[in-house]
Amino acid sequence: MAKIVGGFLMPHVPLITAARDMANKAQADIVYGAFSGVAARLRELEVDTVIIIGDDHYTIFGPQCIPRCLIGIGDVDGPIEPWLGIPQGPIENNQPLAAHIMECGFEDGIDWSFAKSLTVDHSVGVPYHLAVRENTSVRTIPVYLNVGVAPAISSRRAYQIGQSIAAAVASWAGDERVAIFGTGGISHWVGAAEMGRINPEYDMRILDMVTAGDVDGLIALPDEEVLAEAGNGCLEIKNWLCAMGALPKATAELIAYEAVNEWITGLGFAELRLAS
Amino acid sequence: MSVNAIEMAFWKIGSSPVEVQQYLAGKSDYLARFNLSDQESQLIQNLDVRALADKGVNTVLLVNTYSALCGGPASLGEYLQKMAAAN
Fold first, then answer.
1. What share of residues in chain A are helix, strand, coil (percent, to 5)?
2. Residues of chain B under the 50 pLDDT cut
3. Do B60 and A15 touch (CB under 8 A)?
4. Rounded to a whole number, what is the distance in Å from the CA of A94 to chain B's nearest CA?
5. What residues does A143 pair with on adjacent strands?
């Protein structure tokens, strides 16, 4: 029977790869080390499938159709942005498990949108490139939540989707060992006049809530507060909540935090560890 | 005339290098296909991102398309200068 064996929370800001050399070297080394550490943990946990929770940045989905939650059940490739400094190409999906997660979600009341062919953006492409790609036998299931275009998905719904994903994996007849990534955040203002501002105090508040397992507190954070204190990019903690919903019994341990001015973002990493 | 139409035009322009080239080859003609007022069309052509943001246009979309039109991530400083400008 398949099981989720671990989870990770991590940033996906595109400047990590597009502008690596712009950042303070010590900070960049910590961030790249954190991604490498996640890749190593995937090997230790013998993970063969990663589910990456990301969000579109008004790039792959336009005003004509903005899915609230979407799963890639077929071909996957990317990333779509040519300037990321990441090789573009196919990304191997675990299509049978992805389809099962979708079907189980329908039974759970999750009206998934689905993509039979999906070109991912940096929200999946950066974590894939830095934490998955070197593990060549690992397959990747992309999930997109809408947090970038108002009205954003609710935090409670994001968490429920994580719960549905966990139930689907647990009911899958295969023997996959699955890890789930919640990506994005923490504080950053994308395209806004405040772009470049970082709020480390608020970032630490978020990380403290994560490591304390304060799911109710995170869900209760009003979007208006998050937007004011940490910018539109911080709504990506809904992706984190989705991952946390898939691992309700996990303990979160901080891996790293760096406020990188050159990357205009507070970058936080944590592992969702299950008791062995 | 709406934020929706502005966002549609902005998204379409930035959706591929081919669209960028078509837009740059004839901005007014390109924008004529969208339900934009003359003022809105002018704001787009002038890349007046601050005024567009003040109208409620998604700022993620604004910075994406600005970048696509103005040379990629290196244009970020210029974008921020425009965003900082008071109307």
1. 40, 25, 35
2. none
3. no
4. 28
5. A53, A71
Residues 89-128 of A with CB under 8 A from B: none
Q: Are A15 and B53 an interchain contact pair (Cβ–Cβ within 8 Å)?
A: no
Look at the block and give the residue holding tokens 């995937």: A42
Q: How far apart are CA A30 and CA A237, in angstroms?
A: 21
pLDDT (tens digit per residue) in A181-198 = 999 999 999 999 999 999
CA distance A145 to A136: 26
A53 token code pair: 């929770």
Extended beta strands in chain A, E state: 3-10, 49-54, 69-78, 89-90, 113-119, 139-145, 177-183, 251-260, 265-273
Q: Which stretches of chain B sit within 8 Å of chain A by CB?
A: 4, 7-8, 11-12, 15, 49-50, 53, 58-64, 72-73, 76, 79-80, 83-84
Chain A partners of B20 at a C-beta cutoff of 8 Å? Answer: none
| Average of per-residue pLDDT across A122-137 | 97
Residue-level pLDDT at B86: 61
| Residue A84 backbone phi and psi in degrees, to 5 | -75, -20
CB contact under 8 A, A193 and B63: no
User: Which among A134, A98, A133, A132 is positioned nearest to A118, based on CA atoms?
Assistant: A98
Pull the structure tokens for residue A274.
């299950």
Over 80: is that where the pLDDT of A30 sits? yes
DSSP conformation class of A227? H
pTM of the model as a whole = 0.96
3-state secondary structure of A264: coil
- R_g of chain B, CA atoms, integer Å: 12
Mean pLDDT of A73-95: 96
Q: Which of residues 192-251 of A touch B (CB under 8 A)?
A: 192-193, 195-196, 232
pLDDT at A224: 97
The continuous run of DSSP H or E covering A51 comes out as strand A49-54
Give the C-alpha separation, B4 to B12, whole Å: 12
